[in-house]
């Protein structure tokens, strides 16, 4: 690895992030650094704040305190000289295209074909010409093994196929980082493998990603860093062999005993 500033500082930086819903504090001072090309797997009990963390990184939720930066740019703000200006909704949409988000429930546009789902964001949010985007979208569908399903609508596809379209869609804006929120949790067991294989392929190809998952095998095989979060705090983080096999905290041990 060459030592660029980016690699030292992290492509994704979360600093001192607090987030509450009413009186419920869901994130209580979260710090996280993800370097380019790294795979970070986030594990933790239901309700611990995993989805909120991803939503804050993607600016689907505003932080109460702290900040998130992607590739040195503060999420939700534009820098003009020394002053920061809060972004307007339109600019937020453009900023968000630097981050690909894959949801548990696929969230494809039901009335659009697989191809149109992939084409949509680069054209409408990034303003790129359709003539340029469409061949790329077809190549992305090939990459997730769905080259022959370009004209299918979501309801004609299995859950595993829909999630693979969702991954192609997330890649279409050429994001710097991909966020996955329990991408296989809504799938029938026999469909989990085909989706994990696509994610593994991307990880091996150097895509920077943060993956919330209960698939401990995936974490063991591909994570550079495993982060255990509980009650809105990162309890411990480190290489899989450390966090999964030699956890330092009782709460991590108790959680792993339940899911393994
Ligand atoms: P996880 O993904 O780890 O299961 P979440 O981040 O979804 O946890 O939720 C953390 C906590 O925040 C939960 O108690 C949840 O009920 C609460 N929560 C999440 N989103 C909202 C919201 N939009 N309004 C109010 N409470 C919320
Ligand atoms: Mg969640």
Automatic annotation (TrEMBL):
Domain ABC transporter: 12-256
Membrane-crossing residue ranges in chain numbering: none
Single GO MF annotation: ATP binding
Family stated for the protein in its record: Belongs to the ABC transporter superfamily.
Keywords from the UniProt entry: ATP-binding, Nucleotide-binding, Transport
Listed name of the protein: Amino acid ABC transporter ATP-binding protein
CDD domains reported in the protein's UniProt record: ABC_HisP_GlnQ
Species of the source: Cellulomonas edaphi
SUPFAM superfamilies per record: P-loop containing nucleoside triphosphate hydrolases
């Amino acid at each position: 690895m060459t030592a660029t500033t980016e690699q030292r500082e992290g492509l994704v930086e979360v600093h001192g992030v607090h987030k509450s819903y009413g009186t419920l504090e869901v994130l209580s001072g979260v710090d996280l650094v993800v370097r380019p090309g790294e795979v970070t797997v986030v594990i933790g009990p239901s309700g611990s704040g995993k989805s909120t963390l991803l939503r804050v990184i993607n600016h689907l939720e505003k932080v109460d305190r702290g900040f998130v930066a992607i590739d040195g740019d503060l999420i939700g703000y534009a820098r003009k000289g020394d002053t920061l200006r809060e972004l307007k909704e339109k600019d937020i949409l453009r900023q968000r295209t630097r981050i690909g988000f894959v949801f548990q429930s696929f969230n494809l546009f039901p009335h659009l074909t697989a191809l149109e789902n992939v084409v949509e964001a680069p054209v409408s949010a990034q303003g790129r010409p359709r003539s340029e985007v469409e061949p790329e979208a077809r190549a992305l569908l090939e990459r997730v093994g769905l080259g022959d399903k370009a004209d299918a609508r979501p309801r004609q596809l299995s859950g595993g196929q829909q999630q693979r379209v969702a991954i192609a869609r997330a890649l279409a804006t050429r994001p710097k980082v991909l966020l996955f929120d329990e991408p296989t949790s809504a799938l029938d067991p026999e469909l989990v493998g085909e989706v994990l294989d696509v994610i593994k392929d991307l990880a091996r190809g150097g895509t920077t990603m943060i993956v919330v998952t209960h698939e401990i095998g995936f974490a063991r095989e591909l994570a550079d860093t495993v982060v255990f979060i509980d009650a809105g705090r990162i309890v411990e983080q480190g290489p899989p062999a450390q966090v999964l096999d030699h956890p330092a905290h009782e709460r991590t041990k108790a959680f792993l005993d339940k899911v393994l």
